[in-house]
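FIELD: query
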Amino acid sequence: MNAQKGQMMILIVVIISAMVLGAVALNSFIMVSELRQVTDARLSGAAIFAADTGIECILFHEFGNDTYSSVSCPTAPGSPGSSSDIQTLPNGATFSFVLVSKTAAASVWRATGTDGSGKSTRSLQITLQNI
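FIELD: result
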């Protein structure tokens, strides 16, 4: 009888240890995914700010002021569908912009920014209407 009680005790310890190990593994997985989301949010922010810099360059080109103090803007494409050169920002993020369409009434531009690691890309679009 006593031998069976010892075997039962060992079996219970093994089962409880497996449950604790499973809980720790699940908790670690959740923590790693949360950390990955935080990192992705930072990269997404860098990409959106790079795209915003592209929008600023578009506005400088469209309103006749091609001087931009901290970043030299690439030359604006002249025909729809053509894109600017890729410009690298000091933080490693890059941006470019493309003239999507141009009519007598309006021109549509799209700026695309990518973070320094290339993991996150964001685009912004602006429509400039001729009044």
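FIELD: remark
The mean pLDDT is 83.
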